[in-house]
Amino acid sequence: MTQPVQAQAQSAAAPAAKLEAQPAMRVAHAGRAAVLGSAKAGQRMVTVGEHGVVMLSDDGGRQWRQARAVPVRSTLTSVAFADPMHGWAVGHWGVVITTADGGESWALQRIDTTEDRPLFAVHAFDAQQLVAVGLWSLVLTSADGGKTWAAVTLAPPPAADGKPARKADLNLFHLFADAQGRVFAAGERGFVLRSDDHGATWSYLPSGYKGSFWTGAAPAPGVLLAAGLRGSIYRSSDDGKTWVRVDSRSKSSITALLLRADGVLALGLDGLQLRSTDQGASFSGTPRADRAALTAGLLRADGREQLFSRQGAVGD
Predict the structure, then answer these.
(1) I need a labelling partner for 115 at 20 to 30 A (CA). Which of 59, 86, 92, 278 fits?
(2) Neighbours of 282 (CB within 10 A)
(3) Which CATH architecture is the domain 24-314 placed in?
(4) For residues 139 and 154, is the Cβ–Cβ distance under 8 A?
């Protein structure tokens, strides 16, 4: 099974009580902690990563500090905020944690130590409506701010190579939304899934690609982008009905797509940075000199990017 950066560090089995009791590790050099997901809480930057480490910056990424209280030290893969105060992070062991103070402190909402079935992405429609996705077509929704979660059973994906799928077992790696409030999941075997009802039901959008999509974005009405393994980028201009491959001119895997006012920035392994000014129809760029394994990015207040990697925040 091919997995993205967010999923490479599978947790070892551990007793439930011991796992729940261990808080996040304290990191001496906070700014160098591995980042697997990032989000804005108002103007604050919030990142999550291995060992339950949550990092905060209130000055556009110049200085970082570790969150005061995180109840688990399992790997956290994704974070999302509904407003400057209320946010959620997800990760291994099906963990969901929540904050009501902009990321300073976190409380455990969900954990399943019977199997390490990670959640890879979370999306907040608002402070009540949430959706999270993960390993083997795991889809969870909440209508009460994460106090309770309901599992959604997906139909098997469409037949591939003449062999009908028996069950839904795709790994779903990333969630992104469009301006209409629809949410999309980027997954394995070239599939993008779409939900028009806050994650309660989903439809498959086959791209024709056979590899994994690790990220996606909706840069304009009707336009969808999905990207992942070995520099693969696919684009649809008709809400996912048809897709075309975009030449990235790279074999480095793409881990994140960052939407800017002037276009799209694709980030990836080996320092990959590709820019598009035509809503993803074409990309160009050169790798960073440091070849950092880029994993995420956020826009600063001045419009510049703050990038993150397996070695924490990286400079311009």
Answers:
(1) 86
(2) 16
(3) 7 Propeller (2.130)
(4) yes
